[in-house]
Protein backbone atom coordinates (compact mmCIF):
# COMPACT_ATOMS: atom_id res chain seq x y z
CA UNK A 1 0.00 0.00 0.00
CA UNK A 2 1.54 3.40 -0.97
CA UNK A 3 2.47 5.78 1.82
CA UNK A 4 0.12 8.74 2.14
CA UNK A 5 1.61 12.15 1.40
CA UNK A 6 0.26 13.18 4.83
CA UNK A 7 2.31 10.49 6.60
CA UNK A 8 5.02 12.39 8.53
CA UNK A 9 7.42 9.46 8.79
CA UNK A 10 9.46 10.00 5.58
CA UNK A 11 9.94 13.70 6.33
CA UNK A 12 10.84 13.20 9.97
CA UNK A 13 13.34 10.49 9.13
CA UNK A 14 15.26 12.91 6.92
CA UNK A 15 15.82 15.64 9.48
CA UNK A 16 16.33 13.20 12.33
CA UNK A 17 19.10 11.48 10.38
CA UNK A 18 20.69 14.90 9.83
CA UNK A 19 20.55 15.50 13.58
CA UNK A 20 18.79 18.85 13.34
CA UNK A 21 15.79 19.94 15.45
CA UNK A 22 13.40 20.09 12.49
CA UNK A 23 12.75 22.18 9.37
CA UNK A 24 12.29 25.87 8.65
CA UNK A 25 10.17 26.31 5.52
CA UNK A 26 10.25 29.86 4.14
CA UNK A 27 7.71 29.24 1.37
CA UNK A 28 4.31 27.96 2.48
CA UNK A 29 0.89 29.40 1.70
CA UNK A 30 -1.97 30.13 4.06
CA UNK A 31 -4.64 32.53 2.83
CA UNK A 32 -8.23 33.52 3.52
CA UNK A 33 -10.41 30.60 2.48
CA UNK A 34 -12.07 32.52 -0.34
CA UNK A 35 -8.66 33.35 -1.81
CA UNK A 36 -7.22 29.86 -1.38
CA UNK A 37 -10.28 28.35 -3.03
CA UNK A 38 -9.73 30.60 -6.05
CA UNK A 39 -6.04 29.72 -6.17
CA UNK A 40 -6.86 26.01 -6.13
CA UNK A 41 -9.51 26.49 -8.82
CA UNK A 42 -6.91 28.22 -10.99
CA UNK A 43 -4.48 25.34 -10.56
CA UNK A 44 -7.28 22.88 -11.31
CA UNK A 45 -7.98 24.68 -14.59
CA UNK A 46 -4.27 24.67 -15.54
CA UNK A 47 -4.60 28.38 -16.33
CA UNK A 48 -2.03 30.33 -18.36
CA UNK A 49 0.16 31.14 -15.35
CA UNK A 50 0.36 27.42 -14.60
CA UNK A 51 0.37 26.01 -18.10
CA UNK A 52 0.07 22.31 -17.21
CA UNK A 53 -1.94 19.88 -15.05
CA UNK A 54 -1.15 20.64 -11.42
CA UNK A 55 -2.88 18.51 -8.77
CA UNK A 56 -2.87 19.95 -5.24
CA UNK A 57 -1.45 17.23 -2.99
CA UNK A 58 -2.29 18.88 0.33
CA UNK A 59 -5.81 20.11 -0.39
CA UNK A 60 -7.30 20.07 3.10
CA UNK A 61 -8.91 22.31 5.69
CA UNK A 62 -6.64 24.97 7.15
CA UNK A 63 -6.38 23.32 10.56
CA UNK A 64 -5.32 20.04 8.99
CA UNK A 65 -2.69 21.79 6.89
CA UNK A 66 -1.20 23.46 9.97
CA UNK A 67 -1.25 20.16 11.83
CA UNK A 68 0.43 18.40 8.90
CA UNK A 69 3.36 20.82 8.86
CA UNK A 70 3.80 20.41 12.61
CA UNK A 71 3.69 16.63 12.30
CA UNK A 72 6.35 16.83 9.58
CA UNK A 73 8.57 18.65 12.08
CA UNK A 74 8.36 22.09 10.47
CA UNK A 75 9.29 24.48 13.27
CA UNK A 76 8.61 27.71 11.42
CA UNK A 77 6.66 28.43 8.24
CA UNK A 78 5.05 31.35 6.41
CA UNK A 79 1.62 32.42 5.19
CA UNK A 80 2.69 33.81 1.84
CA UNK A 81 -0.24 35.94 0.66
CA UNK A 82 -0.18 38.02 -2.50
CA UNK A 83 -2.64 40.33 -4.26
CA UNK A 84 -3.53 40.22 -7.95
CA UNK A 85 -5.22 43.63 -8.02
CA UNK A 86 -5.29 46.97 -6.15
CA UNK A 87 -7.11 47.42 -2.84
CA UNK A 88 -6.35 43.87 -1.79
CA UNK A 89 -2.96 43.90 -0.07
CA UNK A 90 -3.98 45.75 3.10
CA UNK A 91 -6.83 43.28 3.68
CA UNK A 92 -4.48 40.33 3.14
CA UNK A 93 -2.00 41.85 5.58
CA UNK A 94 -4.72 42.18 8.20
CA UNK A 95 -5.71 38.53 7.72
CA UNK A 96 -2.09 37.32 7.83
CA UNK A 97 -1.43 39.27 11.02
CA UNK A 98 -4.40 37.62 12.70
CA UNK A 99 -3.34 34.20 11.42
CA UNK A 100 0.16 34.69 12.88
CA UNK A 101 -1.35 35.65 16.26
CA UNK A 102 -3.34 32.42 16.27
CA UNK A 103 -0.47 30.34 14.87
CA UNK A 104 2.74 31.22 16.74
CA UNK A 105 4.97 28.99 14.59
CA UNK A 106 3.90 30.91 11.46
CA UNK A 107 6.08 33.92 10.68
CA UNK A 108 3.98 37.09 10.51
CA UNK A 109 3.71 37.66 6.77
CA UNK A 110 2.73 40.71 4.71
CA UNK A 111 2.55 41.73 1.07
CA UNK A 112 2.29 44.77 -1.19
CA UNK A 113 1.02 46.04 -4.53
CA UNK A 114 1.88 49.19 -6.52
CA UNK A 115 -0.77 51.63 -5.31
CA UNK A 116 -0.71 55.00 -3.51
CA UNK A 117 -1.44 53.39 -0.12
CA UNK A 118 1.42 50.88 -0.30
CA UNK A 119 3.86 52.74 1.94
CA UNK A 120 1.20 53.24 4.63
CA UNK A 121 0.19 49.61 4.96
CA UNK A 122 3.78 48.40 4.59
CA UNK A 123 4.76 50.70 7.48
CA UNK A 124 1.81 49.40 9.51
CA UNK A 125 2.84 45.79 8.83
CA UNK A 126 6.44 46.41 9.86
CA UNK A 127 5.36 48.17 13.04
CA UNK A 128 3.01 45.26 13.78
CA UNK A 129 5.96 42.85 13.63
CA UNK A 130 5.92 41.44 10.10
CA UNK A 131 8.85 39.06 9.74
CA UNK A 132 8.62 38.47 5.99
CA UNK A 133 6.99 39.99 2.93
CA UNK A 134 5.75 38.14 -0.14
CA UNK A 135 5.83 39.71 -3.60
CA UNK A 136 4.54 37.87 -6.66
CA UNK A 137 5.60 39.65 -9.83
CA UNK A 138 4.02 37.05 -12.12
CA UNK A 139 0.54 36.97 -10.56
CA UNK A 140 0.47 40.65 -9.68
CA UNK A 141 1.62 41.57 -13.21
CA UNK A 142 3.56 44.64 -12.06
CA UNK A 143 7.10 45.87 -12.27
CA UNK A 144 9.09 45.78 -9.02
CA UNK A 145 10.48 49.17 -10.03
CA UNK A 146 7.04 50.76 -10.27
CA UNK A 147 7.41 54.29 -8.80
CA UNK A 148 4.45 53.66 -6.50
CA UNK A 149 6.55 51.04 -4.69
CA UNK A 150 9.63 53.20 -4.09
CA UNK A 151 8.62 54.43 -0.59
CA UNK A 152 7.57 50.90 0.44
CA UNK A 153 10.84 49.35 -0.72
CA UNK A 154 12.73 51.98 1.24
CA UNK A 155 10.83 51.10 4.42
CA UNK A 156 11.43 47.36 3.94
CA UNK A 157 15.12 47.89 3.17
CA UNK A 158 15.65 50.05 6.26
CA UNK A 159 13.79 47.57 8.46
CA UNK A 160 15.78 44.62 7.10
CA UNK A 161 12.65 42.48 6.67
CA UNK A 162 13.22 39.66 4.14
CA UNK A 163 11.09 39.52 0.99
CA UNK A 164 10.23 36.21 -0.68
CA UNK A 165 9.86 37.37 -4.27
CA UNK A 166 8.57 35.31 -7.18
CA UNK A 167 10.38 37.05 -10.02
CA UNK A 168 11.64 34.24 -12.25
CA UNK A 169 9.77 33.39 -15.44
CA UNK A 170 8.52 30.00 -14.28
CA UNK A 171 6.20 28.22 -14.49
CA UNK A 172 5.15 30.68 -17.22
CA UNK A 173 6.71 34.04 -18.06
CA UNK A 174 4.97 37.29 -17.27
CA UNK A 175 5.43 40.77 -18.67
CA UNK A 176 7.64 41.82 -15.75
CA UNK A 177 9.37 38.56 -14.74
CA UNK A 178 13.05 37.79 -15.20
CA UNK A 179 16.29 39.09 -13.73
CA UNK A 180 16.58 42.47 -15.47
CA UNK A 181 14.00 44.31 -13.37
CA UNK A 182 15.40 42.78 -10.18
CA UNK A 183 18.83 44.08 -11.15
CA UNK A 184 17.26 47.51 -11.61
CA UNK A 185 15.50 47.25 -8.23
CA UNK A 186 18.76 46.33 -6.50
CA UNK A 187 20.50 49.27 -8.12
CA UNK A 188 18.01 51.47 -6.27
CA UNK A 189 17.87 49.41 -3.06
CA UNK A 190 21.08 47.35 -2.77
CA UNK A 191 20.39 46.40 0.86
CA UNK A 192 17.03 44.79 0.15
CA UNK A 193 16.97 41.34 1.71
CA UNK A 194 15.45 39.48 -1.24
CA UNK A 195 14.84 35.73 -1.18
CA UNK A 196 14.35 34.78 -4.82
CA UNK A 197 11.64 32.12 -4.92
CA UNK A 198 12.05 28.87 -6.84
CA UNK A 199 15.82 29.53 -7.23
CA UNK A 200 14.76 32.04 -9.92
CA UNK A 201 13.48 29.23 -12.15
CA UNK A 202 14.15 29.02 -15.08
CA UNK A 203 16.73 31.86 -15.02
CA UNK A 204 18.75 30.05 -12.36
CA UNK A 205 22.16 31.29 -13.51
CA UNK A 206 21.15 34.95 -13.60
CA UNK A 207 19.75 34.88 -10.09
CA UNK A 208 22.78 32.99 -8.77
CA UNK A 209 24.80 35.88 -10.23
CA UNK A 210 22.76 38.33 -8.19
CA UNK A 211 23.18 36.25 -5.03
CA UNK A 212 26.93 36.38 -5.55
CA UNK A 213 26.92 40.10 -6.31
CA UNK A 214 24.65 41.35 -3.49
CA UNK A 215 25.20 40.47 0.16
CA UNK A 216 21.49 40.39 0.99
CA UNK A 217 20.18 38.44 -2.02
CA UNK A 218 19.33 34.83 -1.22
CA UNK A 219 17.30 32.07 -2.90
CA UNK A 220 14.76 29.49 -1.85
CA UNK A 221 14.59 25.95 -3.18
CA UNK A 222 10.84 25.90 -3.77
CA UNK A 223 9.99 23.19 -6.33
CA UNK A 224 13.50 23.32 -7.80
CA UNK A 225 15.31 20.05 -8.56
CA UNK A 226 12.13 17.95 -8.41
CA UNK A 227 11.15 15.63 -11.27
CA UNK A 228 8.06 17.78 -11.86
CA UNK A 229 10.09 20.97 -12.38
CA UNK A 230 12.94 19.27 -14.19
CA UNK A 231 10.56 18.30 -17.01
CA UNK A 232 10.29 21.96 -18.03
CA UNK A 233 13.13 23.78 -16.27
CA UNK A 234 16.02 21.56 -15.14
CA UNK A 235 18.71 23.13 -13.02
CA UNK A 236 21.83 23.68 -15.18
CA UNK A 237 24.64 21.23 -14.36
CA UNK A 238 27.24 23.95 -14.92
CA UNK A 239 25.86 25.72 -11.82
CA UNK A 240 26.18 22.76 -9.43
CA UNK A 241 29.42 24.17 -7.93
CA UNK A 242 27.80 27.54 -7.27
CA UNK A 243 24.79 25.84 -5.74
CA UNK A 244 27.12 24.11 -3.30
CA UNK A 245 29.17 27.23 -2.56
CA UNK A 246 26.10 29.37 -1.88
CA UNK A 247 24.59 26.98 0.65
CA UNK A 248 24.73 29.68 3.32
CA UNK A 249 22.37 31.86 1.21
CA UNK A 250 19.83 29.20 0.24
CA UNK A 251 16.66 28.46 2.19
CA UNK A 252 14.34 25.51 2.01
CA UNK A 253 10.92 26.25 0.57
CA UNK A 254 8.19 23.78 -0.31
CA UNK A 255 5.18 25.70 -1.75
CA UNK A 256 3.00 23.65 0.61
CA UNK A 257 0.11 22.96 0.15
CA UNK A 258 0.13 23.76 -3.58
CA UNK A 259 2.55 21.07 -4.73
CA UNK A 260 1.81 18.18 -7.12
CA UNK A 261 3.91 15.66 -5.14
CA UNK A 262 4.68 14.71 -1.55
CA UNK A 263 6.55 17.04 0.82
CA UNK A 264 9.42 14.60 1.29
CA UNK A 265 10.20 14.70 -2.44
CA UNK A 266 11.12 18.37 -2.20
CA UNK A 267 13.85 17.38 0.27
CA UNK A 268 15.10 14.19 -1.34
CA UNK A 269 15.39 16.04 -4.66
CA UNK A 270 17.94 18.35 -3.04
CA UNK A 271 19.84 15.45 -1.52
CA UNK A 272 20.26 13.88 -4.95
CA UNK A 273 22.04 16.93 -6.41
CA UNK A 274 25.77 16.46 -7.17
CA UNK A 275 28.04 17.83 -4.47
CA UNK A 276 25.34 18.23 -1.83
CA UNK A 277 26.49 16.88 1.54
CA UNK A 278 24.84 16.59 4.93
CA UNK A 279 26.19 19.89 6.22
CA UNK A 280 24.72 21.74 3.20
CA UNK A 281 21.40 20.06 3.92
CA UNK A 282 21.55 21.11 7.57
CA UNK A 283 22.12 24.72 6.56
CA UNK A 284 19.35 24.79 3.96
CA UNK A 285 16.74 22.79 5.86
CA UNK A 286 17.25 24.39 9.24
CA UNK A 287 20.22 26.61 10.15
CA UNK A 288 19.79 29.38 7.57
CA UNK A 289 16.06 29.76 8.20
CA UNK A 290 16.46 29.46 11.95
CA UNK A 291 18.94 32.35 11.92
CA UNK A 292 16.71 34.42 9.65
CA UNK A 293 13.57 33.97 11.76
CA UNK A 294 15.13 33.66 15.20
CA UNK A 295 14.22 30.03 15.80
CA UNK A 296 15.70 28.52 18.94
CA UNK A 297 17.12 25.03 18.37
From TrEMBL:
Pfam families found in the cross-reference section: Amidohydro_2 (PF04909)
**Single Gene Ontology MF annotation:** carboxy-lyase activity
Occurrences of domain Amidohydrolase-related (ranges): 24-294
Choose any GO biological process term that the UniProt entry carries and state it.
Answer: secondary metabolic process
Output the InterPro entries linked to this UniProt entry: ACMSD (IPR032465), Amidohydro-rel (IPR006680), Metal_Hydrolase (IPR032466)
Source organism's superkingdom?
Answer: Bacteria
Q: Keyword annotations for this protein?
A: Hydrolase, Lyase
Against CDD domains, the record matches this protein to:
metallo-dependent_hydrolases
Q: Which Gene Ontology terms of cellular component type are present? A: cytoplasm
Protein name stated in the entry: Amidohydrolase
Q: Which organism is it from?
A: Mycobacteroides franklinii
Amino acid sequence: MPVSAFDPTPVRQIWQQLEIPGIVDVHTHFMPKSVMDKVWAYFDSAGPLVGRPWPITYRAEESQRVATLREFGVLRFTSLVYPHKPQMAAWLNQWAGQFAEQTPDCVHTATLFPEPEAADYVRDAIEAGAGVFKVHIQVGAFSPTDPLLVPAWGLIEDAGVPVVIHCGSGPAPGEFTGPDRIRALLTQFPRLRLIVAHMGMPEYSDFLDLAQQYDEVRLDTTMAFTAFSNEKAPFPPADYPRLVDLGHKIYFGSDFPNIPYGYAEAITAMQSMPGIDEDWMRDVLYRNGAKLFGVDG
